[in-house]
Specification:
By secondary structure, this protein is an alpha+beta fold. It is built from two helices and eight strands, in the order ββαββββαββ. It has an eight-stranded antiparallel sheet with strand order 1-6-8-7-3-4-2-5. It is globular, with a radius of gyration of 15 Å.
Length: 165
């Protein structure tokens, strides 16, 4: 996969608070090492997706990263779908996370998922310091919609959202 970081130029949007329901795991942020664990999580989530009630759009899924540990590289990850109401009956092991209203820098990453770690590294280590922007919280999320053609497809597009102050 060729280096896509030079194409990562953000747009800025405001998004209201919303909720996602999905499956959660702990992962370690190392180049390509968490791909298998996250792939298994996504596989389990996609099998459970039809059982989640009150989905806003089952063709739009989210990958939420939060609770980063800078020393170990560990973080929590949820593969999920936006829901209208969390006061519903959910399958076992499904968690609901509330994403706060915020202003976001939105980056469109194009490529297979093996390069998404490098995209995040560029955003946090190069773009943010040079932009003068400050992250508002310890989380980020990706949106996977009809432009996402699969984790190994180099024509896949994923939107990366970084909350800003």
């Amino acid at each position: 996969m060729k280096n896509q970081t030079s194409a990562l130029v953000p747009t800025f949007v405001k998004k209201d608070e919303f909720k996602i329901a999905g499956l959660e795991c702990r992962a370690i942020m190392k180049e390509n090492e968490d791909q298998q664990e996250l792939g298994q999580l996504w596989g389990a989530f996609m099998g459970m997706l039809p059982k989640i009630e009150n989905k806003k759009n089952e063709n739009v899924t989210y990958g939420l990263s939060f609770d980063f540990d800078q020393q170990t590289g560990e973080y929590s990850y949820v593969s999920g779908v936006e829901i209208d109401d969390s006061n519903i009956s959910l399958p076992d092991k499904v968690v609901v996370k509330t994403i706060p209203a915020s202003r976001y820098a939105v980056f469109t990453y194009k490529g297979d998922m093996s390069g998404v770690g490098a995209a995040f590294k560029y955003i946090y280590e190069t773009w943010l310091p040079q932009s003068g922007e400050v992250p508002a919280a310890d989380f980020s999320f990706e949106i996977y919609d009809e432009r996402f053609l699969g984790p190994e497809n180099e024509n896949s597009e994923t939107e990366i959202y970084i909350p800003l102050k």
